[in-house]
Amino acid sequence: MTLYVKTAGAGEGAPVVLLHGFGGSHDVWGPIQERLAAETATLAYDLPGHGSSFACEGAGPAKVAATAILVDLEARGIASAHLVGHSMGGAIAALMAIFQPQRAASLTLLAPGGFGPQINQRLLKRYAAAADETALLLCLEAMFGWFSPVPQGLAAKLLASRAAPGYRDKLREMAEGLARDGRQGMLPAEKLQALTMPVSVVWGGLDNVLPARQAESLPAHYSVRLFPDLGHMLPEEAPDEMLDIIRHTAGLVR
What we know:
Elements: E1 5-8, E2 16-19, H1 30-36, E3 42-45, H2 62-75, E4 81-86, H3 88-99, E5 104-110, H4 121-129, H5 133-143, H6 154-161, H7 167-176, H8 189-193, E6 199-204, E7 223-227, H9 234-237, H10 239-250
Parallel strand pairs: 2-3, 2-4, 4-5, 5-6, 6-7
Antiparallel strand pairs: 1-3
Helix pairs in contact: 1-10, 2-3, 4-5, 4-7, 5-6
């Protein structure tokens, strides 16, 4: 089965590729993609093992997802793209840039995975296993910042997306693989340092999944933004602010 991708917009320049986090789908980017599409071509993927890409072979490891998306971009004739990733999608975007730097016109990483060993795997495992709205809502409350309400109906929407046979089992399997002995695998620092395209990293000070202190030792040429009152779910908590950062990093500001 091929990857599912929602495309919108058009343009001659490099398109914007949007990659969601663990347990999400392309829907996370809805308002951001809609506004970006007025300026340029956009592609919002369902990562392997998620949404309509649930049945993709080998779903789970970030390396598998990064390779699959690079293959899909090549098949579409896309020579380079502005890569945007949230959480696990951030780790995947960074890996894509490491694997094929010529394909990454820029990188915008929102609370990305792989930048430090700390990860709240217990919360992510509960999130993966949640089988009713109440359980999902409790997990989401822990993922959003203290001042950011969980959007109405989000828990119900996520629960409905897990109705496919084997979906929740796959999420649980993937959650187990996010860390070993409670520590996540880290992207190679020397390869992150070697990236030369524009890179923006954004973190919420109230992130309860991946702590904001992971942004403290990034390469000096990265642009780093900290939002003290936001949590982990940056695309949903502050879509306007994230859109502005994506546009600036991608050079879409006129």
